[in-house]
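Hi team,

Filling in the usual template for the complex we talked about on Friday. All components are listed, including any nucleic acid strands or ligand strings, so the model treats them as one assembly.

SUBMITTER: L.P.
PURPOSE: interface mapping
COMPONENTS: two
RESIDUES: 218
SEQUENCES:
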Amino acid sequence: MVTPQRSGQDRVPPHPDVRAVGLQQVLEALVDPVRRQIVRTLYAADQDLNCGAFVLPVSKSTATHHFHVLREAGLIRQHYIGTSRMNGLRREEFEESFPGLLRAVVGNE
Amino acid sequence: MVTPQRSGQDRVPPHPDVRAVGLQQVLEALVDPVRRQIVRTLYAADQDLNCGAFVLPVSKSTATHHFHVLREAGLIRQHYIGTSRMNGLRREEFEESFPGLLRAVVGNE
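RESULT (copied from the run log):
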C-alpha cells in the first residue's frame, strides 16, 4: 500500500467566503492590537509573508491563534510553500465586502 | 448664603480631545453592537438626539454605560437641555483624527 504524499494543496486550511463574514466578527478580529499589527505588516508588504517574518510580542502558539482568528474573519489567506505557512491579505475581496474599513484601520495608527 | 442654581452648562460631562484618543480605544468602543447602533442612529439622524430617542435592547443603566464609553472614545458629545441629556456625533472632529473610519463602520452593516 502506498501512502499518498501530502501536497501543499492538501494542507490549505478552510477559508470563509468574505461575503458571509459579518462586521461584528471583523471588528472583533481587528480590536486586538497584535492582530492589527499582522494586518498592517501584510498591508505594507503587499505580498504574502511566512509566519516567521512577523516580529510579534507573543508566543508562537498565541501568534498561531491570532492568524487563525484573522483567517476566520476573512482578512487573510493561508497556504503552504513546503513547510512554510504563508499569509496573504485578502485585500480586494475584503474591500468589496467592507469598503474603506481596512484602509481606515491600517491608516489610523 | 445663596446656593447657585446649576445651569445646563455646569452639567456638561467631561469630553476628551479626540486627537488624544487612540485607535485601540475607538475600536473597543465600536466593537459593541449596541454602541454601533447608537452611532448609526446618530449618523443617520444628523442631529443631536436625547437618550429616549434610541430604541436599544438593553436596560437604561446599561444604555447610560454605552453612551459613556462612546463619549470617552471621542465619538459623541453630550449636553443637557433642561433635564434631557442630548447626544451628538462628533463627526467632523472624529473624521479629522480617524479619516474614513466612521463611514466604514456605519456603512458596512
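MY TAKE: The interface with chain B takes residues 22-24, 27-28, 30-31, 33, 36, 97-101, 103-105, 107-109 of chain A (CB under 8 Å). Residues 1-5 of chain A have pLDDT under 50 and may be disordered.

Thanks, L.
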